Amino acid sequence: DSHIQYERVGADVTMKCGSMDWDAAVTWTANGTDIDESHLNGSYLILKNVDLSQSGQYSCYEGSSWHLKYQTYLRVGTPPKEPVLMCRSNNYPKGFYCSWHLPTPTYIPNSFNISVIHGTKDMVCEKDAVPKNRCHIRYLQLFSTVKYKVTLTVTNALGKNFTTLTFDEFAIVKPDPPESVVAKPVPNNPRRLEVSWQNPSSWPDPESFPLKFFLRYRPLILDQWQHV
């Protein structure tokens, strides 16, 4: 037999040697290294207050013959904490994307499920290949006053958690920064700079939805910013 066994950090773990009797003579190894008999209760292996370093492959052998009777891969980790979810439209009016991450690692595999509801309608969130923790939603109608509700659920072998965002369409519109920003001196005027830039390439329709730009500058020796 070969298994994967998930346990929480700090838990007491008992491993049985497959179908062997409790009083059978056995030997246990962890990642190929013999485990001291003080950790045995009969043929059971007892691990107290496990930590991350004890993750690994545990094997149980019949005492005299050293026949492998049982094997398990112990994965020590934690249940997921409430995930961090962010939704943003950087290509309005095409749609928006949502991205997520966990505030702390769990050290074991996690799966994420995201649901998007617009009023009473379920919407498809198309997952990106890279980065994997992001998906896109296409706007069904412009200037909608119906709120969006996004729920993200994270699950692993030790537990689950979720978070929910509710927002209006306009509340998450945030363009990407301007591109190709260039500053160059103005000929024959040493106190002036000419600064040029382009719209972010992700912004699809700058004519219908023009962007406003703000520029600030300061000499390195000063703390105060000047705004344009």
TrEMBL record:
PROSITE patterns: FN3, HEMATOPO_REC_L_F3, IG_LIKE. Coiled coil: none annotated. InterPro entries: FN3_dom, FN3_sf, Hematopoietin_rcpt_L_F3_CS, Ig-like_dom, Ig-like_dom_sf, Ig-like_fold, Ig_sub2, Type-I_Cytokine_Rcpt. Belongs to the type I cytokine receptor family. Type 3 subfamily. This is Ciliary neurotrophic factor receptor subunit alpha. SMART domains: IGc2 (SM00408). The gene is Cntfr. GO terms for biological process: positive regulation of cell population proliferation. GO terms for molecular function: ciliary neurotrophic factor receptor activity; interleukin-11 binding; interleukin-11 receptor activity. It is a lipid-anchor; GPI-anchor.
